[in-house]
């Protein structure tokens, strides 16, 4: 069966670029792999991105429900079919983002994780790309025309980063994302090579 490898971190951490680079690395080394992102590219996923851009604030419970619904669609239509076909899935954000972001808005992190684990497969390896918030915001301001007001305020991102640092698990690897991408990518590849990935069967997943 394929493996699920997730890249997580605050906005501006470099996780999207790193996940794409890692996907390319796998393909170059003959590993069948696909790259996905969450929110997904479904209509609901696009709506979630639009809400982050257009509103100062939306109900955190409504926000979480949108993410859960989008993830159910992604698991059923993209993630599980790829894993069952033997492909490695490289995922830019997963339910850890919900735990950390909606957790920063007041919801219980463990409850969010438990909700997701009822239907979403556990990742084999999760790279937490940890960066200083000031550095992340500097990257955002230099690379993006429009920023998501809700998700990219400094005090909010500080809370999100603190939540990421609380996450624990044998499948989680914290990576220093402050250096340049090439240096960080080398660290990711090194940890991937050294990490003993558990063998998971997805055949019985609904």
Topology of helices and strands:
Layout: E1 4-8, H1 15-28, E2 33-37, H2 43-54, H3 60-84, E3 88-92, H4 95-104, H5 109-117, E4 125-130, H6 133-143, H7 154-166, E5 172-176, H8 181-194
Parallel strand pairs: 1-3, 1-4, 2-3, 4-5
Structure keywords:
alpha/beta; Rossmann fold
Structure, described:
The radius of gyration is 16 Å and the shape is globular. The protein has a single domain, classed as P-loop containing nucleotide triphosphate hydrolases (Rossmann fold), CATH 3.40.50. Residues 197-206 have low confidence and may be disordered. Helix 4 (95-104) packs antiparallel against helix 5 and helix 4 crosses helix 7 (154-166). By secondary structure, the chain is α/β, with parallel strands linked by helices. The protein has 8 helices and 5 strands; from the N terminus they run E-H-E-H-H-E-H-H-E-H-H-E-H. A 5-stranded parallel sheet has the order 2-3-1-4-5, with helices on both faces. It starts with a strand and ends in a 12-residue tail after the last helix. It has helices spanning 15-28, 43-54, 60-84, 95-104, 109-117, 133-143, 154-166, 181-194, and strands at 4-8, 33-37, 88-92, 125-130, 172-176.
Overall mean pLDDT stands at: 89
| Strand order, sheet with most strands | 2-3-1-4-5
Number of helices: 8
What separation lies between the terminal Cα atoms? Answer: 16 Å
Structural class: alpha/beta
- Whole-number total of structural domains: 1
